[in-house]
Write a structure and sequence with these properties.
This protein has helices spanning 46-63, 100-105, 134-139, 145-168, 212-215, 221-233, and strands at 3-9, 13-18, 23-28, 31-34, 39-42, 70-73, 78-82, 85-86, 89-96, 112-122, 131-132, 171-183, 186-190, 198-202. It is globular. The strands form 3 sheets. Strands 8, 9, 10, 11, 12, 13 and 14 form a 7-stranded antiparallel sheet that branches. Strands 1-2-3-7-6 form a 5-stranded antiparallel sheet. Strands 4-5 form a two-stranded antiparallel ribbon. With 235 residues, it is of the alpha+beta class. Bound molecules: uridine-5'-diphosphate. The site of uridine-5'-diphosphate has 14 residues, from β9, α2, β12 and β14.
């Protein structure tokens, strides 16, 4: 697969065109940001670890009935993907309180939630990714009612699948963020699933194995990602 032009560069990834107009290459960088770009840094080999983790999880979700943009892993840092039109919302599921839920609602970190919380945020950095509900999404023409229903149903299914997947690895899935896209008229899972986009706590010890190590200067940042990669890929 021939890599051609860079068409997009985000905070953690770059997208390149290929000789097939339906496919792109998603390249994972080592750059890390937090607080909507206020904190910047790099995590050595993060791109390699996040590509490995994302490919493995997307493969598992694909085998369990979730359509994804993954075609195949191409190299250490590159994933061949279907070219989608990204739906401009970030979809978050929370199983236990952390991050903005604690900041915004005064909930204690780690509190068990009585049921998972589904949240939508407008994917627009200049407005700080504000929380929105299904009415905002429909009224502003960001997605249709049918698309919102499909995205919600997939997200709850993905939550169940990922909770099972991580439980076996002695990791608790606290919360995570998903992005979806449109491909040939259908909604499919896009972007990545990695310690950049999930909160992952080791069962028993509560050790943070995710980007909170970077956000909160906890040290051993690379080691957290490495541990997740090791457990996810069995290597
Ligand atoms: N998240 C993400 N990208 C974002 C915002 C959040 O991947 O732009 C993930 C984050 O890693 C966490 C979950 O979504 O796993 C919930 O994040 P939260 O709203 O608590 O925000 P934060 O505390 O990261 O500001």
């Amino acid at each position: 697969m021939e890599k051609r032009d860079k068409i997009y560069e985000g905070k953690a990834k770059i997208l390149y065109t290929t000789d097939n107009p339906d496919l792109l290459i998603q390249y994972f960088k080592d750059d890390a940001t937090a607080g909507n770009g206020k904190k910047k840094g790099t995590i050595d080999e993060k791109g390699i670890m996040n590509n490995g983790i994302t490919c493995k999880i997307f493969e598992y979700l694909g085998q369990n009935g979730i359509p994804t943009h993954l075609v195949k892993m191409l190299s250490e840092r590159e994933m061949l993907i279907k070219k989608v039109e990204i739906v401009k919302i970030e979809v978050i599921i929370r199983n236990r309180a952390a991050g903005s839920l604690c900041r915004n609602y005064g909930v204690e970190e780690g509190k068990t939630l009585l049921c998972p919380i589904l949240e939508f945020c407008y994917k627009e950095d200049k407005y700080n990714d504000p929380l929105m509900n299904a009415y905002h999404i429909k009224a502003l023409g960001i997605a249709t009612e049918q698309e919102i229903e499909k995205i919600s149903a997939y997200t709850f299914k993905i939550n169940e699948l990922m909770q099972k997947f991580f439980a076996v690895l002695k990791i608790e899935l606290i919360d995570f963020k998903l992005e979806f896209g449109r491909y040939k008229g259908e909604i499919i899972l896009a972007d990545e699933i990695s310690p950049d986009t999930c909160r992952l706590w080791e069962v028993g010890t509560g050790v943070r194995l995710d980007k909170d190590r970077f956000r909160n200067d906890l040290g051993n940042i690379k080691e957290g990602y490495q541990e997740v990669l090791k457990r996810v890929t069995g290597k």
